[in-house]
Amino acid sequence: MPAARSSLAGACEKYLIVSLGSIGRRHLANLRKLCPDARIGVLRLHATDTGAAVPTGADHQFFSLSEALAFAPSAAIVAGPASTHVDVATALAAAGIALLVEKPIAHTSAGLASLLATSSQANIPLMVGYNLRFLPSLVECKKLLDAGAIGRVRGVRAEVGQYLPDWRPGTRYQENVSARRELGGGALLELSHEIDYLYWMFGMPSRVSARGGRYSELEIDVEDMVELCLEYEDPARLVNIHLDFLQRSPARSCKFIGDQGTLVWNGITDKIDVYSVAEGAWRHIDSHAQADRNGMYLAELRHFLDCARRREPALCDGVQGYDVLAIVEAARASMAHGAAVAVHGYAGT
To answer: CA 183 to CA 162: how far, in whole Å?
Structure first.
């Protein structure tokens, strides 16, 4: 017998979190903070100890998808390995459950169109967890660029890097999703935030070229460093992105080169520096620092819950998640063949 279709109109909201890795645990804590009276279930698809206590912050735990569907949650957060996203999310979408799927939306585009079609037919929001869209300093950068603070942007240089063994203290990096190809690891997918926020600002490029691979002695079977070049035609623009698992001092920054100035964003300190040709000087903007990085995750979750309750599209929806993955796949193809690759966004079903 199929599970009852979910609704947010009930007296007690029910939510589901799929998987309790580091991001799943963060979402669980934040969901409990924002919705103290909600009933929260956790789906442990890969747990080996079915007798384990219910995790702190949760009210229920399930060990099969059928159990989770019978719980009939109002909305769900899919936070397992990227290689598991499509199958789990499609089943939840078919039951009318609003979805926040952690980034990347999947490890491959195979089957992804079916998920998008299912969520559209069910009239539910499908959001992808690119949380940098909720970082105040980056939001301010986009506002400045949209307002023409440096004129038309002609070039971009973005960088992100951090030493993989330092990512999750207390765990063996070799066993983490980031290090394993079959789970959707690698710099291209794990560090695709940069690809997403530049897509958010400038849309889909025409061509992608990339070079990368495994350059270190890290015990991984995925790429640990990639250089991408995204080419735009209308208007003409060149966007360069550096991704790596190697930098011992974490780095995240972006320089936007316009015909009327330059904007530099430091994603570690949240500082923004703007050079204006008209003023002939640099201006420093320090008012958007976010000391507690959990703030952007809370803002992201509030947005998702609002979209779920109102059945409204999310800031970063499934189609945009598909497009970002299309850029990643074009980069992979370019790395394999040594040539620029044309890239196309979601065309519907």
So the answer is: 20
Shared domain for 210 and 268, answered yes or no, is yes
Q: Are residues 239 and 275 in the same domain?
A: yes
| Of the candidate ranges 49-53, 64-68, 132-136, 263-267, the one whose mean pLDDT is the lowest | 49-53
Q: Is the pLDDT of residue 10 over 70?
A: no
Residues 6+ apart with CB under 8 A from 56: none
Range of 94's domain?
Answer: 14-130+298-316
pLDDT for res 5 = 42
pLDDT digits (tens, 9 = 90+) for 268-327: 999 999 999 999 999 998 767 777 899 999 999 999 999 999 999 999 999 999 999 999
Strand locations in the chain, DSSP E?
14-18, 39-43, 60-62, 75-78, 98-102, 126-129, 153-161, 207-213, 225-233, 236-244, 251-258, 261-266, 272-276, 281-285, 341-342
Backbone φ and ψ for 134, nearest 5 degrees, come out as -110, 10
- Model's pTM, two decimal places? 0.93
**Chain centroid offset of residue 161 CA:** 16
- Cβ–Cβ < 8 Å for 336, 115: no
Residue 218 CA from chain centroid, whole number: 24
To which residue do tokens 């570690």 refer?
A: 268
195: which residues sit within 8 A by CB, 6+ positions away? 228, 241, 324, 327, 328
Q: Tokens 């070039």 appear where?
A: 155
Residue by residue, DSSP assigns 79-134 as -S-GGGHHHHHHHHHHTT-EEEEESSS-SSSTTHHHHHHHHHHTT--EEEE-GGGG
**CA of residue 213 relative to chain centroid, distance:** 22
Mean local confidence (pLDDT), 326-332: 98
**Residue 139: Cβ-neighbour burial (10 angstroms; 0-12, 13-18, 19+):** middle
220 and 266: one domain?
yes
332 located within any domain: no
Q: What is the mean pLDDT of residues 138-166?
A: 97
* Contact in structure between 144 and 136 (CB atoms under 8 Å): no
CA distance 37 to 141: 36
pLDDT at 25 over 50: yes
